[in-house]
């Protein structure tokens, strides 16, 4: 495996568009059961906020040494302001149209003794005016970037994703998609789509053999006009499908502690290595290494170029 292309990555300009969210963690101790109901009582000792969703992809891109712009919708609320502040601190160029009618997507996790006990989600799809603002900023930004990353968490920011992909193609900018749902036709014309194992099963049905997976993956790739389709398969590693055929790499994780945000890290690594000129096979191997590192960390985390090297 060649060395990580730090100098080429530093010149890479990646635009991330998608569902921006705030991941909030409340850490505490559990030493008794509530007298009101048979549930643990968590005495919260520490609160931590982290960039989530598309914002976590951008954060990983910067951590790997590349330049990241972030485009998404937030609400006119405290979580939205925190996301903007944290993005700026991380060195991300963030463009975040605010929707006064809808809250910022917030995922709140309660942990006791490092174990997640509860997750509470606050989310609503953004309105048309916020999407219009996103479209306008996108039109101004797309041509000045090397790669477009589409981070789809089905929270509504990518309701017009087909138009975004078409504009990127017109500008000669390749599109990498982390998909959601079972209708992948909306991603037609992207360069790469990266479903995980369960997402792939949603899209093409369950498979019983590797040959069956390859047949269905290549059919889907041809149908969508993709250069590549990458299926991330957890403990089974990653499998890449291109015109050259099938390429597989085994998982590298030594200890899986938390898979939160692992797909974001994989997508970010694919984006920066492709922007640096690496082929799909090489990019997959670096993404696999990054994914193996990040699942050993607690919560939504990043991997740096130093850790990869």
What's the short version?
The chain has helices at residues 6-11, 54-63, 78-90, 128-141, 161-170, 197-204, 210-224, 262-275, 280-294, 305-308; strands at 13-18, 20-33, 40-53, 67-71, 74-75, 93-95, 98-99, 105-112, 115-122, 147-151, 175-178, 192-193, 228-232, 238-242, 245-249.
Describe this structure in words.
With 309 residues, the protein is α/β, with parallel strands linked by helices. The chain has one domain: UDP-N-acetylmuramoyl-L-alanine:D-glutamate ligase (3-Layer(aba) Sandwich), CATH 3.40.1190. The protein has 10 helices and 15 strands. It has helices at 6-11, 54-63, 78-90, 128-141, 161-170, 197-204, 210-224, 262-275, 280-294, 305-308; strands at 13-18, 20-33, 40-53, 67-71, 74-75, 93-95, 98-99, 105-112, 115-122, 147-151, 175-178, 192-193, 228-232, 238-242, 245-249. A 9-stranded mixed sheet has the order 6-4-1-10-11-12-13-14-15, sandwiched between helices. The chain has a 4-stranded mixed sheet with strand order 3-2-8-9. Strands 5-7 form a two-stranded parallel ribbon. Helix 8 (262-275) packs antiparallel against helix 9 (280-294). The longest helix has 15 residues, at 210-224. The radius of gyration is 19 Å and the shape is globular. The termini are close together. The model has no long low-confidence stretch (mean pLDDT 92). GO terms for molecular function: heptose 7-phosphate kinase activity; heptose-1-phosphate adenylyltransferase activity; phosphotransferase activity, alcohol group as acceptor. Its EC number is 2.7.-.-. Keywords: Kinase, Transferase.
């Amino acid at each position: 495996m060649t060395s990580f292309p730090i100098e080429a990555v530093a010149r890479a300009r990646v635009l991330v568009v998608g569902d921006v969210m705030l991941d909030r963690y409340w850490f505490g101790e559990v030493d008794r059961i509530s007298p009101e109901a048979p549930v643990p009582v968590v005495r919260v000792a520490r609160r931590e906020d982290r960039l989530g969703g598309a914002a976590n992809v951008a954060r990983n891109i910067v951590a790997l040494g590349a330049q990241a712009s972030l485009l998404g919708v937030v609400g006119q609320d405290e979580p939205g302001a925190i996301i903007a502040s944290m993005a700026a601190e991380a060195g991300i160029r963030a463009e975040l149209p605010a929707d006064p009618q809808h809250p910022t997507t917030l995922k709140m996790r309660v942990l006791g003794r490092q174990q997640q006990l509860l997750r509470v989600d606050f989310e609503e799809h953004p309105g048309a005016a916020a999407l219009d603002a996103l479209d306008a900023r996108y039109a101004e930004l797309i041509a000045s970037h090397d790669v477009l990353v589409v981070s789809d968490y089905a929270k509504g920011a990518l309701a017009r994703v087909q138009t975004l992909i078409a504009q990127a193609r017109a500008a000669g900018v390749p599109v990498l998609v982390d998909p959601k749902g079972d209708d992948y036709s909306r991603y037609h014309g992207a360069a790469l789509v990266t479903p995980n194992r369960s997402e792939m099963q949603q899209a093409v049905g369950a498979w019983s053999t590797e040959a069956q997976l390859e047949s269905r993956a290549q059919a889907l790739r041809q149908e969508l006009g993709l250069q590549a389709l990458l299926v991330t398969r957890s403990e089974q590693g990653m499998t890449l499908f291109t015109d050259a055929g099938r390429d597989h790499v085994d998982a590298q994780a030594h200890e899986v502690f938390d898979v939160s945000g692992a797909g974001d890290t994989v997508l970010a690594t694919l984006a920066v290595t492709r922007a640096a000129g690496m082929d799909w096979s090489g990019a997959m191997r670096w993404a696999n290494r990054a994914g193996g590192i990040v699942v050993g960390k607690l919560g939504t985390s990043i991997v740096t170029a130093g850790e990869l090297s």
